[in-house]
Amino acid sequence: QVQLVESGGGLVQAGGSLRLSCAASGRTFSGYVMGWFRQAPGKEREFVGSIVWSGGITYYTNPVKGRFTISRDNAKNTVYLQMNSLKPEDTAVYYCAARLTSDREYTNWGQGTQVTVSS
Fold first, then answer.
1. Residue whose C-alpha is closest to residue 50's, from 66, 69, 31, 67
2. Contacts of 103 (CB under 8 A, 6+ apart)
3. Is 84 strand, coil or helix?
4. Positions of E strands within the chain
5. pLDDT tens-digit map of 73-88
6. Could you write out the DSSP letters of every residue in 21-36?
7. 63 close to 54: Cβ distance less than 8 angstroms
8. What is the pLDDT of residues 51-77, one digit of tens each?
């Protein structure tokens, strides 16, 4: 059974950086896409970016392009979200998710980690 556990959230001032981690277990992820999502208070969950586990191809939503970077460590089965130049509007609960490359929907989700950016 796939398990995803996020960590690394916290409080940071605007302009600062945080690195979120998503520890994945339960299977090998070579055929998976790993995604990061976020949900701010009163808003719908939105896609942040993703990485194809095999090959490392990444995609980002426009608001985070150039500021956020997704990477993975095969040996640790961990995906990272490096967030730089953080803005107050980045405040949200961040979720890690996984889906097979052949699926459209993400089928496995972590519990989320809170990121708060103060102005």
1. 69
2. none
3. coil
4. 3-7, 10-13, 18-25, 32-39, 46-52, 58-60, 68-73, 78-83, 92-100, 108-109, 113-118
5. 989 999 999 999 999 9
6. EEEEESS--TTEEEEE
7. no
8. 999 988 999 999 999 999 999 998 999
